[in-house]
Amino acid sequence: MNTLVLFVFHVLFLGVHKIQCKSHPKPSCGYPPSQWCRSLEIAIECEVQKQCMELNASRLDPVVPPVEISLYYESLCSGCRSFLTEQLFPTWTLLKDIMKVNLVPFGNAKEVPEENSFSCQHGEPECYANMVEACVLYEANHAAFPVIHCMESSADVTQSAKPCLQLYAPFIKWETIESCTRGELGHSLMHQNAVKTQALKPAHTHVPWITINGKYTSELEDKAMSTLFNLVCSLYKGIKPPVCTGALKKLDRSFC
């Protein structure tokens, strides 16, 4: 069973089972819920073979492309932070197998070629935080999003950068990020983000600016800002994962 199904099944089952199954407790089969579909023998012992077969039938098609969400933002923008922490990251946590996230920290910043620097809407602290996040994206790969979410959900984005990196990407030394922000690499990464932002069609007029599969419309952005989870589920062209279809909720009830 893929990681998404195991994670969602385990988390939702623990919460839903407490509420819905109090009056009809099921004797323990000796295995925790996260293991019930690990093998046919365990499924039979726990009397859930039918439900496990339904889950296995819902495995994702690797040929179908993921839904691609690109966020053009700036690190100290309150609206950007709200969308990233309240919509984008939670949705990615549940649907990372069917979605791809691109983060482009730059927003309304401007390049200042004559000074070989950048000017940011919320001042120098934002320029620094933008560059830190660009360097984290470059150095940390798969661990970058949790680091950035940690930063953006904290009270102080810049001060939380080092502890967030140590917590979610301990394989990256803070000195590596500092070196990136002070050197040519950080400047080059920010220039690339400037080019990507300036190449948007239509041109961005605000932040956060959200594109879906490379496309921007105000309607898509409104849906993303309010119910991104539902939007990603609806746009995915393959077999919907159980967390999208509601099959998981039905499955949880069947264990009562």
Architecture overview:
This is Gamma-interferon-inducible lysosomal thiol reductase. InterPro entries: Interferon-induced_GILT, SAP_A. One of its GO terms (cellular component) is extracellular region. GO terms for molecular function: oxidoreductase activity, acting on a sulfur group of donors; oxidoreductase activity, acting on a sulfur group of donors, disulfide as acceptor. Pfam families: GILT, SapA. This protein has 256 residues and is mainly α. It folds into 2 domains: 3-59 and 239-254, no CATH class; 67-234, Glutaredoxin (3-Layer(aba) Sandwich). Helices cover 54% and strands 9% of the residues. It has 12 helices and 5 strands. Strands 2-1-5 form a 3-stranded mixed sheet. Helix 5 packs across helix 8 and helix 8 (174-182) packs across helix 9. Residues 1-27 and 247-256 have low confidence and may be disordered.
Which key terms come to mind for this protein?
mainly alpha, Glutaredoxin, 2 domains, three-stranded mixed beta sheet, globular, disordered N terminus, disordered C terminus, oxidoreductase activity, acting on a sulfur group of donors, SAP_A, oxidoreductase activity, acting on a sulfur group of donors, disulfide as acceptor
Write the layout of secondary structure elements.
Elements (H helix, E strand, L loop, with lengths): L2 H18 L19 H6 L3 H9 L9 E7 L4 H18 L3 E7 L4 E3 L4 E3 L4 H17 L3 H9 L8 H8 L5 H9 L1 H15 L10 E4 L5 H18 L6 H4 L1 H8 L2
Parallel strand pairs: 1-2
Antiparallel strand pairs: 1-5, 3-4
